[in-house]
Amino acid sequence: MNNPEYENRVVLFLDILGFKNLVNASVENAEIAAQIHTALHQIHLEYSDQTDSFIGDTQLTFFSDSLFLTQKFHSVDSSDVFYFLNTAAFIMNAFLAYGLFPRGAITHGKCIHEKVQNTDSNARIDTSICYGPAINTAYIAEETKAIWPRIIVDSDVLLKGIQDDKTNRFEDSVKEFGELVKNDGTVFYLDTLVPEYCDENRFIPFIEQVRKHVINNLNNQTDRHIREKYELFADYFNSKVRELNPTEERVDSIPDLLIRPDKENFNKARRLFEEANKDKVVFNKDNLSSPTKAGQVP
Questions:
Q1: Whose CA is closest to 53, among 71, 40, 68, 38?
Q2: Contact at 8 Å (CB) between 157 and 109?
Q3: Exposed, middle or buried by CB within 10 Å (0-12, 13-18, 19+), for 198?
Q4: What is the pTM of this model?
Q5: Is-contact 162 174, C-beta < 8 A?
Q6: Are 116 and 168 contacting, i.e. CB atoms less than 8 angstroms apart?
Q7: Tens digit of pLDDT per residue, the chain (298 long)?
Q8: Strands (DSSP E) along the chain, which ranges?
Q9: Distance separating alpha carbons of residues 98 and 104, to the nearest angstrom
Q10: What are the E-state strand segments in 3-121?
């Protein structure tokens, strides 16, 4: 066997919030068992089929409550980076539609992610391996920086994507990435609760379904630590509903009293979120200027 060579890959790591409790409950609850199985099965089928059409070499691996999606990081064009971020947004919304709330991180670095085919016996076994420093970085970022159900994005990925964009003007590339990725002052994250990242003509039913799932979790979640994360997601959900309602069909927000039954605890969770992210280095796209040379950030 040849010695492996690490590739520079962009990495998405997702972890489903409260999955252990869901699995334990599914043993006695057939509805929850069906929810988990249907969601993981359908998402795996849909996105593993799509990886063949991705620009570049893309791999997808599911394990229990974890998903790893990686793509070779090319320096020719940012379109594969932008497509990767779009795909991550669709995957996030697919989980939310099934009532599963992932937390994730996108970063890049050295990684090996490849299919392994065993043809030495009559029963061929196809599987994949996935490891490397970039996987470790994404895992730590998800665990320590994402905090609530969303996908955060390493600023280096955004800079790399904008720098390497040879098809758009610099300002256009910044705008294109800025429509998908938002900055809350501490981290960049995918702003997924928008019509662009949902099946056509299904956005309003999708939002209403997510609202139902969030309210159900807020009413039934007994783990204080997990509930705080649903509260933070509900706060984000309501901010998107406020943006939606002036121009679209009316969508109800999540009642404020349900999000903050204990205002002191909610504020504590918010402070923990801010504390965890205070040392995150970010760039502000509003402060970026056009490069003096194509593909270079001054």
A1: 71
A2: no
A3: buried
A4: 0.80
A5: yes
A6: no
A7: 556 788 888 999 999 988 888 888 889 888 888 888 888 888 877 776 555 545 457 888 888 788 999 888 765 444 578 888 888 999 999 999 999 999 999 998 898 888 776 666 555 566 778 888 989 999 988 988 898 999 999 988 887 777 666 666 666 666 777 788 888 878 899 999 988 888 777 888 999 999 999 999 999 888 888 899 999 999 999 999 888 765 555 678 888 888 876 666 656 656 665 665 555 444 333 433 333 333 333 2
A8: 7-16, 58-63, 66-72, 102-118, 125-131, 151-153, 181-183, 188-190
A9: 17
A10: 7-16, 58-63, 66-72, 102-118
Among residues 23, 12, 71, 62, which one has the least CA distance to residue 42?
62
Which tokens hold the place of 290? 């056009």
Write down the residue that tokens 């409550």 correspond to: 65
d(CA 282, CA 198): 28
